[in-house]
Specification:
By secondary structure, the chain is α+β, with helices and mostly antiparallel strands. 25% of the residues lie in helices and 38% in strands.
Length: 351
């Protein structure tokens, strides 16, 4: 019985010994003043480098064209479909020519009558029966009839659509039997056979102002995301898109474009602007509430108080985050313990 009682007391004495050791151990550590939050800091180092602007857009060619009929009417034939390869001069679509041929025949008959009248007046003028004025009027009527016949034939020629260059049919807007008005879109084509692919991206007004024509560009595609293609800024739009408020910038390949490109395919670009910017790089853990390119960090000026600062976030790398605005007046960034801080929290800097 006595032995059993002794074994029951052993854990109790053990706890007393551990508690005693723990108290002595704590007395050897640096005590944190009551209410202060332990943090770690690092120096804020400003650097300056070339400005990189990331953008996305769609591939297209500089000779995309909307093809249409000169005159209106009923569509008789549609000879190609979307995606078809076309050759220069190839017949793509025609109108029903019944009404158009009637107009051509009427113009031809008018011309033939005017020609007969002119020849008759010339004979009468030679016999001094017709006057000079009558001869001049007949000549004018003949010229007008000739112009009317030429216009009718021109309209007939443009009652069919032919490819203006080698390329592809990007979009077909019509079908056979459909009535169409003059100038209405029939096909959208491009000249992909010329290798004139471009990437058109939209930038904000600030980004647009920083970009210059001739700036170097690195383009990537979703087909080969690890492959980059060299390009340059070719053209900057001078008018904002009324729907988005952004400005279009055209990027042109300086090397052969990949063969798999298709109009409308999305691509990414990194524009290497000649402009420079001040920047800072900070650890991920130092940033709080990041959203839409903005966030917060905690800094300290006196080493005793934390200060909450709004920042603008640039690029995000695998091991750090770029800050482009907000740290101009500070030299010490809190990189550990930020989650427990509020503005003006008392802190204790730990090594």
């Amino acid at each position: 019985m006595k032995s059993t009682f002794t074994y029951l007391l052993l854990p109790f004495f053990g706890m007393l010994i551990l508690q005693s050791c723990g108290t002595n151990g704590n007395s050897m550590n640096t005590e944190i003043p009551k209410g202060q939050i332990p943090v770690k800091i690092q120096e804020i180092i400003q650097s300056e480098g070339s400005l990189e602007i990331d953008a996305t857009g769609q591939f297209t060619t500089d000779d995309e064209t909307i093809l249409s009929f000169k005159t209106g009417g009923i569509i008789s034939q549609v000879l190609v479909s979307e995606g078809d390869v076309i050759r220069k001069g190839q017949l793509l679509a025609t109108l029903d020519l019944t009404e158009i041929n009637t107009a051509v025949n009427q113009a031809r008959l008018g011309y033939e009558k005017a020609k007969r009248d002119y020849e008759r007046v010339q004979r009468l003028l030679a016999d001094s029966v017709a006057t000079v004025e009558q001869a001049q009027n007949s000549k004018t009527a003949l010229d007008i009839a000739a112009q009317s016949l030429e216009a009718a034939n021109f309209n007939k020629d443009y009652s069919q659509i032919r490819a203006i260059s080698d390329g592809n049919v990007l979009k077909k807007f019509i079908n056979e039997g459909q009535q169409i008005a003059p100038g209405s879109p029939v096909f959208q084509t491009n000249g992909s056979g010329k290798g004139t692919w471009k990437l058109k991206v939209n930038l904000s007004d600030r980004e647009w102002a920083l970009v210059k024509e001739g700036d170097n560009v690195a383009i990537t595609t979703p087909v080969e995301p690890d492959e980059t293609f060299e390009a340059k800024v070719k053209r900057k739009s001078k008018v904002a898109d009324p729907m988005t408020g952004t400005y279009q910038v055209e990027l042109e390949f300086t090397e052969k474009a990949p063969n798999y490109l298709a109009s409308g395919m999305f691509g990414s670009a990194r524009i290497l602007s000649e402009a420079t910017q001040k920047t800072w790089f900070v650890p991920y853990d130092a940033i709080l509430d990041a959203n839409a390119g903005k966030g917060f960090v905690f800094v300290t000026k006196d080493g005793n108080t934390a200060q909450k600062v709004s920042i603008k976030i640039g690029k995000i790398y695998t091991d750090k985050v770029q800050v482009t605005e907000g740290l101009e007046e500070y030299t010490k960034l809190i990189v550990s313990g930020s989650a427990y801080l509020t503005d003006q929290s008392p802190i204790s800097i730990q090594n």
